[in-house]
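Blinded run. Sample ID left blank on purpose so nobody reads anything into the name before looking at the predicted structure. Input follows.
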Amino acid sequence: MTRSHPHSTSTGRATRNRWTLAGVSIVFALIVAGGAKVAFDLSSTMMTHLAFVGAWMMFALGLAYAGVRIRPALGGALFTGFGIGALLVVFFVAMRMVA
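Blinded prediction complete.
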């Protein structure tokens, strides 16, 4: 049986709030950058600085990937947040603000 009036077709997903995704990106970027600062402060020599910050970045990337597998709708926000956090770490290291 066909309908005689036009109707909207539901896509099956709720409307996403862009501010929520932007907030997730910013919070995850701050977690990545703050964790790198803490990892840098916990180490004592140049090579352990590099190893701890690298290990933290890999851990944060793994968290972003796990978040994508658990909540695919947040995947772009988490990876964007990781990218922004990584750029913040590079910027602060280049400006020697970490030490």
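Unblinding after everyone has recorded impressions. Residues 44 and 92 are 18 Å apart (CA to CA).
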